[in-house]
Amino acid sequence: MKIIITMLLIVLTSQTFADCKRFERKETGPHQRPEFDGPGSFGALHGTLTLGCLVLNGVALLDGVPVATVVDEKGKSYFIRVGSYVGEFDGMVTEIRDSEIFIRQLFYKEGEWVKKYVILSKE
User: What domains are defined for the chain?
Assistant: First the structure.
């Protein structure tokens, strides 16, 4: 089996985010197993919303580790670090700088796994 990984880089500021969509967990009945691999399985921002719902508020160092604060369209704040899952397509934070968050997304397109890197920038 041949796996080809294609990489794309997209730079976005919060001004370019026009589409904001939320995804809900499937409700399970009393005699069903809970869903362990759906939206929110790996943190509050994992698969629960698109990146269009988030605005980078700021970045700080906690014990020498960069931590970013993002705010969703409802005004709720979240702290994220490198390795945090954010948004759709298994988005994972790969790097945090003073005014940018680098997010790797992974999706399957036309028989290939594609990595897309999105940069969430502060205005």
Answer: 5-17+42-121 (2.30.30.830)
